[in-house]
Every structure is written in C-alpha cells, then in structure tokens.
C-alpha cells in the first residue's frame, strides 16, 4: 500500500512541477519564473566590479539559496518522472543540470569566470515555463511563419555572407592596412558592420574611392534589408487565415511531452494513459 | 434664475473647452495647441546655457504667462464639469495639473532642474487635442493593427531581451573587461546596441573571436528585424478592409468622455442626457 | 508668311525641347541629361580643395560652357511657349532659372560659396526629363502607395517627434551636461540618432541608468520601425491590382502640361488644339 | 572505335562535372564546394599578418594544391564540352579561369597583393554549384519577386542618390570644412551614412542647425526605408500563389545550359539531342 501512496505522491508532485492545469502547478511555475529572473539578475550584478565589492556576501548567499532550490527541483523532476533518462538527456534536462552545477564547481575551481557565467543559461529555462503558458499560443502563427521562411532566410543570409566576403576583399585592396583594414577577415567584419547598417565607426574608409565604395555598399544594404522582411511579411500574412492549435497546459507524466488536446486519454508521444488520477 | 444662467454658462464654456464641434471650440483647441508648442520650445531653449544666459528674463516671463494661462484653463476645466473628481484623477487631469505646478514650485525650490524638466510633459496634452480632431481618425486602422499585434510584438521583444542577455554574457567572457566589456550588464547593453543596428562604437570587439561573434550577432539582428515588420504589415493589411468609426468632435459635459455617434442622445459612458441645449 | 514660318519653327523647337515623342526630342533630353549630370559632377569636384587647385581652369571653363548652354535653353524655352509667364513662375521654370544665375552672380560676388552651391539644384531638372520618359511609369504604383499612406506616415513621424522630445528630456535629466547631454535640444538630437538606429556615437550614455534607458529606447525604435513599413507594404499591395496610366511623351505647346492620352486632340489643361501640325 | 570510346568517356566526365543527377556528379559538386570554401579561407588567412608569418609554408602549399586541382578541373571542363569557346567566354568560364591564374602570375610578379586577392572570386563559383542543387529551387519565388521589383528598386535608389546629393550640399554649406564636411562629395558620403542609418560617427554635425537638419534627414531615412520593403513584400506575396519550376539537375553536354524539364529530349537552348546515352 505504501508503494501505491508513493506513486500517488509522485503523480501529484509531477502535476505541480510539469503541468500548469492545476492552481498549484501555475503557482509553482510563477515562483520558478521569479526565481530564474532573480538568479539571472544576481549573475549580472556579480559581474559589476563595484556592486560585487560592496554586496559580495549578500550576492554569494543569494546564489547559494538559488542553487540549492534549483538542485531540489532537479532531483524532484528526476524522481517523479517515469523515464528519468529521457528527461536527463533532453534539452531542458541538460539546461536544468547546468543551472545548478557551476556554483558547486566554484568551490573547487576558485575564480573561474567562464564557469560562473554559465549560470546565465538558466534564462533558457524561462522558455519551458512559457511554453506551457497559454500566452505563447499567441505566437504560434509567428513561429509557423518563421518556420516556413526558414530556408529562404538561410539562402538570404548565405548570399549576404558571400557578398560581404567579396566586398570586404575589395575594400582591403582599396583601403589597405594603413587605413585600418588590416586583413581580409577584418575587412569582411567591417563590411558586415556596414551592410547591416550597424556602423560602429571603429574602422571607416579614409580614401575617396573607399568612401565611394562604402556609399554603394550602404545603399545595397538598404535595398536588401527589404528581402527578409518581405519574406516574413508574406509568409505571415498567408498563415494568418489558418487556425491556431490550443495549449491545454498539461504534460505527460511518463515522457514529459505536452498534451495538446484537452480530451486526450493517451499521450500522443509515448502512449501512456493520461487520466488515471 | 441665476443658477440657471450659471448652468448655461458652464455648459457653454464646457463646450468650448472640451468639445470641437463648435467654431469656438475649434479655435480654443488651436490656441491651446499653439500655447503647448510655444511652452515646450521655451522649456527646451531654457536648457541651452548660452540662450538661457542671454534671454533669461524673456524666457522666465514667457514661462510665467504660459503657467498662468494653463492654471486658468485647469480651473475652468474643473468647475465646468459635472463630476470634477473623475477629471482630476483621469490621465489627462493629472497631466494638466503637472503642467502648471513646476513653475510654482520653482519659487520655493531654487535651481531644481528635475522639476522644471517635468514641464515637458505638457507635450502629452497634444494627444488630447488631436484625439478630438478628425485628422487622427486616419490613423485608427494603424492603432487597430498595433493593438492586435501587441502580444506578438511583446513576445518578440521578450525573445530579443533573452537573446541579448545570453549573447552579452558570451561577449563578456570572450572580450573581457580589458576590451571595454567591463561587466555583464554593460555587455548586454552593447549587444542591444549591435542587435538593433544602432552601433554607437563606444565599445566594439577587439579580438578576432569577438569580431566573429559580433558579425554573427549583426546578421541575426538583420534577420530578425523582419519579424515585427512582418507582423504589423500583415495585421495592417488584414485590417484595411474593415471600416473606420467616425469622430463627432463632441464630449459629454458630465464625464468628459467622447461622444462617438452624432445622433447620440445620452452619454454612452454615464447615461447623461446630451441634447438639452 | 514670315510669321507663319516663325510659328512653325517655334512649334518644332517646342516639340524638341518639351516633348519626347520625336527622335529629336528624345535626343535633346538625353543630351540635357548628360549635361546636367556633367555639371553636377563639376560642382562637386570644385568643392574638393586639392582637385580645384589642380584643375581650376578646366572646371571654371566647363562651368561657363554649361552655364551658357543652360541659358540658351532657358531662352528657347521662354520664347517657344505660348504663355511664357506660366512657365517662368512654374516650379521647373524657377529651377531652370536658378541653374543659370549663380555663375553670372559669381562675377560680382567673389568667393560666395553659398551661391555657387545653389547650382546643385540643377539635379532637380532631372525629374522633369524623367517625368516624360516611359520608364518612370513603372513607379506610378509606388507613388500612389506613398500618396495614400501620406497622412499615416505623417502621424507616425509626429508621434516619433513627441516620443523623442520626452525621452530626450529624460536622458538630459539622467545623464546631464557632464556626460555630453549639454541641453534638451541636444538630448533630443541624441534620442533621434538612437531611435532611428543611426547611432553616431558622438554622444553615448555613460551612467548605468542612462545605458538602461538607452537600451529601452533602442528596443522601442526596433519595434516601431515596423510601422511605416507595414503601412507602405499594405497600401502598395492593395494598389497593385489597379492599372497604371500611360505616358505618351507629349507636352501641350501652349501650357507645357503633359498630354496623357495618345489620341487627345485638345489639351486637358488649357483646351489648346493639339494636332495642327 | 577509339573515337567512340573517347566520346563516351567525354560524356561520362561531362555528366560528373556539369550535371548533378548522378551520384558521382553530386559527389563531385560536394568536393568542389569543400575545395572552394577551403581555398577562400586560405586566401583570407594569408592576409592576416601574424597567421601568414607563422603558417606561411602550409598556406603556400595548400594554395598550390588548390590551384593545380582547379587547373585540372578547368582543362576537363574545356575538353569535355562540345563547344569550348562558348564555355570559355561565358561568365562562369571566366570566373573558373580567374580562379587559377593569380597563383601562376605570383611566380613572375612578386608581392602583387591585387592579383592574389583576385582569388576571392572563387566564391562566385559556389553559385554555379548551388544553381544546380535542388535546395536553391526554394528561393525561386524570392528571385522572381526581386526581378519584378527590380525597376522600382532602381527608381528608389536613384531618388535616394539625388536626395543625398542635395542634402549633402546643404550640410556642406551649413557645417563647412571646419566641422569635418571638407567637400561636397564628402558631405554626400556623410548623408548616405546617415540616411541608411549606418552612422559611423567619423563625421557628425557640430552646429545646432546642422544637428537639426541631421535629425530631419534621419527621420526621412527612417520613413523611406519602408519603401523597398513594401515593394518586395507585396511582389513576393503576389508571387507566392504561382508555382515553382523544377530543377532537374541536368546540363546540356553541348552548351552547358540547364535542362529544366526532366522529360526533355532536346536542349532548349541549342537543340542538341540529350538522351543518346
């Protein structure tokens, strides 16, 4: 009978942690969201020298609290799911793991900036929470439009890169190292800066011919910025008539994939029976 | 009988101040528009050291004249409306109040730059005037398109912020404080400057790897600029077939909300009888 | 009989100068186009100190030749048209006059840079030539789309200006003169530079709060760039189904307005009989 | 019979080099693609002083290997095609030739940077390979949209140039050489930098009037960026309903033009009988 109760407990915790269709599940997600945002702000503030100097202890303790809470959550996620391996090696499983590890490592590896900065990956956890919330259902059409224009955007980016390499080489020949165009990769970097209309100004053409070519590059960049926009606009408009699928806020207790239909009795991914509670 | 006359007077002044469907009301709005623009220009010129030095007296007197006129208008607005409290605590009521107060405060708090700059909020008053004028009816479709794409734009901005934080942290690790990326928030600032193609150039990547990542960020920024445009274009196009509602230029004398139908006999908001004059 | 011959001559020259439906008229336009481009290049080169130094004589003589040719053309335009006054005070009449005058004035007013630069207005003459050429007929739809979205674009620009003034004032308060934000107009200038994603970097926020606000301004700018694009896209798409009017390349010899229908017998503007030649 | 065998060999090699509808042809294209990318990376690395210094020998040998392979391929292309002259003087024929020559020339002309940089043109060869691959068929619609909006984009660019010249001259008069606007061409360069929202900041307006005009230019630039986008969006959307033509991956062994229909028996360009193998 104890096993039965344990199973029931596991199912309940699973519902709270993975699902959003119960009040407790929604509250849990909200708290987790707050914790993630709070921990990311701590990571950012820690990197500011004068803030870290003054509030070092407070930031350090906060970080430990957050890390321990994330660790607890990770353990609960692993033990309440039927197939833990699938979760552990899934994208969000790895992200959850990486959210907890850096702080523990910092005990052994003192001052390793690289590893502490890894904690920023906690931000990715937000996507999981949002995925389950209704509100993102709004952007389904957007994602569909981006998906169907993926190949075209890729072709476009590919053309931009080839154009940048050729024009960058031309500028390297015209301006030369004495005007800051020290190498072809550096000139290509400048060309991308110009073509995308970023324009830092750390390097800028000095010779009249270089400025003339730069003018041409800018006008080209101005013209081709229209292309990805045109693609997405058209795809998005054509997709607007199609309906949106609903999000039920439930997750399969077996494989943690989303349950998309509210009247589903079995998981669409693993066939697990959903409604035995 | 005096009360009757007073009531009639109140109604007439109300019509002039709040409405635009009478010649006097239109003239009043035009004068107010001129006064607002004039007062904002004074605030701006006052902040230019060499202009303030030379024309200090003229600017000061102008400011006092404008403040007194705005005060008079505010008093008239309060006494001619049936429910003054509703007006006083409405958005435009607060803006109207904040337009007059700073100058009076400057008598007691000498040299408080913060408070004098508050006067720039007078600009917001322009929106009230324009709201009542036909001409803005033109932009109804635009506002509708923005409204219906609000959530999507928000989701998009949210993604941009998350991407910026992650990429900013990557650049902080790659470039480090010695190249100007002094902290994670500062690197995130740089990432937004780059992703939005602003590109000040106050910080720019110095290492080859940093420049390579920056190049990638720029091309990503170039690609995703298409997303909000695509959304607004499609929403706007889909909204173009729908009709526009008319603006009658009248306001309810009781609660000051707009009267949208020219044949309305009662206020749509408070049920006040509109046509007893 | 002499008057008759003179009238015939006038008509012939008129056809060559104003029309493009005869081979001679097309050749004249082509030569004029070349002359305009040539003269603009001369004006530009004259302003470059080291080129002007070396080729001063050549540029000066070229300029005189161009000026005399433009003067001759101007005189011919005046005497071959039936109603010279209408031409002289028309937009292109004034532009034609201003194309010739500066060089003559330079004889009396030595070294007046302002007046010589006026010659750049000759560029506007290109629009007259192009107006008569078929090729621009292609952009009719574009002009129609711009025309119908004129008011909305204006409303949008108006909002951008108000937002810039308010945000500029906020930045003036936050950053202050010690960080380069010397006055409100200067801060507004910076805000426009940022909002439009130009980003010179001559001024950039130094305080953390200023950088945070700047980040917000950039993301706003990124979002609202979608608005004018969305408007023009939708208007253009909706206009694409409508037909384009043809351009016959003929002009009325009486009032110089375009003849739009190839089978027209009378001028649509002044009723002049067109086909008596 | 030897001639027969030779003809058969020629046809087989032709199929591998020019076509992509056989496994060998696809493998050849893949290898060529890799070789091109590899050789372009070598050209880029060679231009970086400290990399060239350390790995000079390795880069030099790699370059020789690539050059010899490209030379072999060029010779095979010439001898396996029926009309070599047509290939040699075609666009890709010239590009293939220019991909091999610079390294041989470097034996005679020591240190000629200009000629070695020519090798970057090898990048253009990628387009030939991609042209034959299915995947680009995806971008057919994009190319069609760009094609049909070509004239309008050109008209737009033309207007941008005229506006830039006029506004550049205005800024030259307003700011003058003492503020960095040394000549009209230089001011025009600045105007394009501003109008396209690149904004290097190497020159920026210093006078209040100049900053005011710059603000106007930026807002104009912000507004007109909508135009090319609107055109491409609308054209692309209108083209989306039309079908895409298929790419069969075959090329005519006589004139090397693409065979577009899979059931074609004769070359659409030169009438050569296609299916005698």
Provide the fold topology:
The structure is a homotetramer of 277-residue chains.
Chain A: H1 2-18, H2 23-46, H3 49-80, H4 84-88, H5 91-105, H6 113-117, H7 125-132, H8 140-148, H9 150-175, H10 184-195, H11 208-224, H12 226-239, E1 250-251, E2 258-259
Antiparallel strand pairs in A: 1-2
Question: What does this 3D model show about the protein?
Answer:
The structure is a homotetramer of 277-residue chains. Chain A is mainly alpha-helical. Chain A has two domains: 135 residues, Voltage-gated potassium channels. Chain C (Four Helix Bundle (Hemerythrin (Met), subunit A)), CATH 1.20.120.350; 107 residues, Helix Hairpins (Orthogonal Bundle). The first copy, chain A, is built from twelve helices and two strands. Chain A has a two-stranded antiparallel sheet with strand order 1-2. In chain A, helix 1 packs across helix 2, helix 9 packs across helix 10 and helix 9 packs antiparallel against helix 11. Chain A starts with a helix and ends in an 18-residue tail after the last strand. About 3% of the residues of chain A have low confidence. At the B-C interface, helix 2, helix 6, helix 8, helix 9 and helix 10 of B face helix 9, helix 10, helix 11 and helix 12 of C.
């Amino acid at each position: 009978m104890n096993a039965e109760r344990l199973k029931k407990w596991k199912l309940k915790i699973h519902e709270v942690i993975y699902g959003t269709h119960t009040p407790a599940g929604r509250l849990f997600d909200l708290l987790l969201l707050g914790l993630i945002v709070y921990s990311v702000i701590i990571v950012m503030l820690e990197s500011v020298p004068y803030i870290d100097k003054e509030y070092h202890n407070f930031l350090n303790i906060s970080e430990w609290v957050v890390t321990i809470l994330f660790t607890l959550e990770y353990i609960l996620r692993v033990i309440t799911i039927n197939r833990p391996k699938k979760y552990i090696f899934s994208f969000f499983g790895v992200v959850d793991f990486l959210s907890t590890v850096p702080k523990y490592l910092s005990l052994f590896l003192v001052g390793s900036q690289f590893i502490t900065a890894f904690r920023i990956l906690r931000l990715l956890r937000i996507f999981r929470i949002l995925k389950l919330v209704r509100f993102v259902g709004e952007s389904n059409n957007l994602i569909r439009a981006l998906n169907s224009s993926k190949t075209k955007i890729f072709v476009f980016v590919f053309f931009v890169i080839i154009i940048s390499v050729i024009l960058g080489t031309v500028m390297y020949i015209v301006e030369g190292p004495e005007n800051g165009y020290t190498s072809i990769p550096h000139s290509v970097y400048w060309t991308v800066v110009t073509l995308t209309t970023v324009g830092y100004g750390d390097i800028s053409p000095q010779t009249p011919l270089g400025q003339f070519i730069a003018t041409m590059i800018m006008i080209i960049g101005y013209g081709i910025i229209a292309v990805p926009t045109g693609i997405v606009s058209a795809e998005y408009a054509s997709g607007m008539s199609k309906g949106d699928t609903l999000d039920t806020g439930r997750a399969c207790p077996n494989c943690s994939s989303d349950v998309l239909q509210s009247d589903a009795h079995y998981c669409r991914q693993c066939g697990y029976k959903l409604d035995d509670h």
